[in-house]
């Protein structure tokens, strides 16, 4: 695994963070800081290790310190989690869920009022 491969892996994870979680910033490090609380601990730590591996891959002597198996595992953890996220689970989906809840509540209220009016004795 070369430096280019590690950088491509980090770029893929950064792109997924931008697409799925709308994380802003340039590069994996900044996007990870922006999306930090929205990621589970395991994924966050794997992404942080990818940031370190990406930094080491930029220097040829430090590239020898990069554990290829660990980088591949961290990449898989990040990609597996991020590809399962539906990008529509953001603010728009929250608005739709709230609207649906209000609509169901109004429907139940209308049914209760209708039942009360039907069962009320006629004068």
What profile does the largest beta sheet have?
Answer: none
Question: How many domain regions?
Answer: 2
Radius of gyration, CA atoms, in whole angstroms: 24 Å
Oligomer: single chain
Ends apart, CA distance between termini:
87 Å
Secondary-structure element string: HHHHHH
The percentage helix is over 70%
Number of strands: 0
> Number of helix segments?
6
Describe what you observe in this structure.
With 123 residues, the protein is mainly alpha-helical. The protein has two domains: 3-87, no CATH class; 88-123. It is 76% helix and 0% strand. It is rod-shaped. The model has no long low-confidence stretch (mean pLDDT 89).
How is this fold's topology laid out?
Blueprint: H1 3-21, H2 27-34, H3 41-57, H4 60-63, H5 68-84, H6 91-119
Helix pairs in contact: 1-2, 1-3, 1-5, 3-5
Compact overview of the structure:
This protein is an all-alpha fold and 123 residues long.
Kindly list the characteristics that best describe this protein.
mainly alpha, 6 helices, 0% strand, single chain, rod-shaped, 2 domains, 123 residues
């Amino acid at each position: 695994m070369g430096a280019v491969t590690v950088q491509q892996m980090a770029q893929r994870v950064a792109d997924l963070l931008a697409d799925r979680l709308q994380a802003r910033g340039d590069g994996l490090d900044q996007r990870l800081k922006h999306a930090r609380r929205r990621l589970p601990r395991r994924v966050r730590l794997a992404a942080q290790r990818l940031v370190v591996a990406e930094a080491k891959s930029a220097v040829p002597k430090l590239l020898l310190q990069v554990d290829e198996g660990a980088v591949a595992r961290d990449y898989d953890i990040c990609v597996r989690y991020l590809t399962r996220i539906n990008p529509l689970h953001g603010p728009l989906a929250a608005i739709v869920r709230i609207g649906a809840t209000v609509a169901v509540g109004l429907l139940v209220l209308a049914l209760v009022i209708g039942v009360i009016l039907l069962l009320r004795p006629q004068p």
